[in-house]
Amino acid sequence: MDKRFIFNLITFLVTIFASVQADNQFYYLKKCYKSDPEVNECLKRSSNYLIANMRQGIPELNMYEPEPIIIDEIGIALGNGPDGYRASFRNIKAYGVSNLTITAVRSDIESNQFQFTFYIPHISARALYESTGVLILVQATGGGSYWGEYEGVKAKVYIKAKPVDYQGKTFLSLQQIKMDFSVKDIKMGVENVHNGNSVIQAALNLFINSNAQDLLKEMKPDLKKKLLMIMKNFVENLFSNIPYNEWISE
Length: 250
Ligand SMILES: *[C@@H]1O[C@H](CO)[C@@H](O)[C@H](O)[C@H]1NC(C)=O
Description:
- With about 250 residues, the protein is of the alpha+beta class.
- It is built from five helices and ten strands, in the order αβαββββββββαααβ.
- It starts with a helix and ends with a strand.
- It binds 2-acetamido-2-deoxy-beta-D-glucopyranose (NAG).
- This is Protein takeout.
C-alpha cells in the first residue's frame, strides 16, 4: 500500500468518526425497542447509563454538578398543644444521591407508565435546625446543626406520561409522579445546640437516635413533597429535551 492510500484511508475514517460523533446528539442514552421482549431490562440499562453520564455532567441538558441535592426546608411536629415539639430543618444538603443504581424497571409502554426501583448505598445530610417545645421532658427550644447518615436507601418512583407532538417530533409530557422510600439504617444527631448545654444536647441525641425511624416517618410527608418537586423538574427537563423515539423506538 502506498502512503497516499493510507493517508486517504485515515482521512476517510476520521471524517466518518467525526460525523458519527456529531450525529449522536443523545450519546448519554441507549435506545430501547418496543418489540424487545426484555424491554424493561433495556430501560434499566439505559437509565443506569444516563445516570453514569449525569455524574460526569451533561451540558446539553444543563446538568453539571450532581452533588449535593439541596432542599430549602422541611418541618416536623410531634405531639400537639403549646408544648408540642416542632422542628424545622433549613438549608439541607444531601450527598450521595448520584450514586444511585436502578435495580428494576416495570413498564406499560402502551400507556406510558413506568416504575423505577432504585438503591442508594449511603446518603449524608447536613442542615440547620430550629425547634420549639418539649421533647421527652427536655425543654428543646433552640437551634443548631443537624447531621444524618442514611444507609441502604431504597426508593420506588412511578411515572405516568403522555405523548405530545412538538415541531414534527413526539415528546413525553409528565402527567403524574409518585414516590416512596425506605432507609435501612439511620444515624443522626444535633450539634452546636444554642440556648442549650451539653446535657441537653446529649439527651436530644439519645432520643433522636433511639427514635430515628419514627422521626423519619414524621419527616416523610414534607420530605416527599420536596423530593417530588425536585424529581418532577428533573423528569420534565429530560422529557422536553429528548424526543420519545430516542428513549423507546418502534
Ligand atoms: C459514591 O460512591 C463511592 C464509592 O462507594 C464513594 O467513594 C463516594 O464518596 C460516593 N459519593 C458520594 C457523593 O457520596
